[in-house]
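User: Please predict the structure of the protein below. I'd like the answer in structure-token form so I can feed it into my own downstream comparison script.

Assistant: Understood. Taking the following sequence of 280 residues as input:
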Amino acid sequence: MAITALPPDTDADLARVTEALAMITPRWNVRILLALSGPPLRYSELTAKVPWLLDGQLHPKLKSLCDAGLVERTEHGARHVTYGHTDRAVTLLPVLPTIVTWAEEHLETTERPVPAIEQIEDSLTLLTRRHAAAILWVLKSRQEASGRTLARIVMPNSEYTNVYPPLRQLVTDGLVDTEGTGRPYRLSAAGEGLGPVLGSLSAWSAGQPLDQAARHPLWGNLQSKTAPRPWVSSRARPAPATPRPARVGGSSPGWHDSDLFSHATPARTKAAIPAGGPRR
């Protein structure tokens, strides 16, 4: 069933990516998947790896990940049960460094080092806002579009004014730009930079090797690129102080899973930070 007025193939691609994001974005899901890297673990062993989760919180999370086909529960005996990655989850892990690369380039800077796991969670939160992925798809394909045009394509069975709250949120998040009321909308530099992330998620959700991300008909890097546009919604982000990790294709991650939990700190403040880039 079509969820937008996009062409059928594009609509199906968008639906798969939206479903994939819904699997991994809920709080703690990525951390649990990372904790399960390696040999299968008994419940008590997994609990020790995610001590911030209470027993009543971990069990339903595991069940949802099992239902999503990312975690496998194996009964070895009456009192011996282990949890481990499915093949589907194993192929998902190389997508995570691509998300970190985008986050380090485009998310706001902070006064402290941000662990990679938080970079991933912040990025996924931006992408799973209501109608965000569909709006990004349309703006990528059209270069720019009015609010009415976006409403007609993204939410064809709804009042056109309903498109403006998610649009304003995307502008606030730094993924979409506009020159003002009544002016067309277009992807910001950060929105354009999502190509490797969304291309990888598209390939993974379609069961394809991740190196197919570069051949994505919309987000792939084989098409000619337009010149970067100046930011409208926020100031330019300063160049990072440290080198960023290389983008990942179909190969294994260049980092260790433990790196994603480094620099563990309390949750960040939600107040806006006076630096360029999408808001966390």
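That's the full token string. The beta strands are 41-42, 71-77, 80-85, 144-145, 176-178, 185-187.
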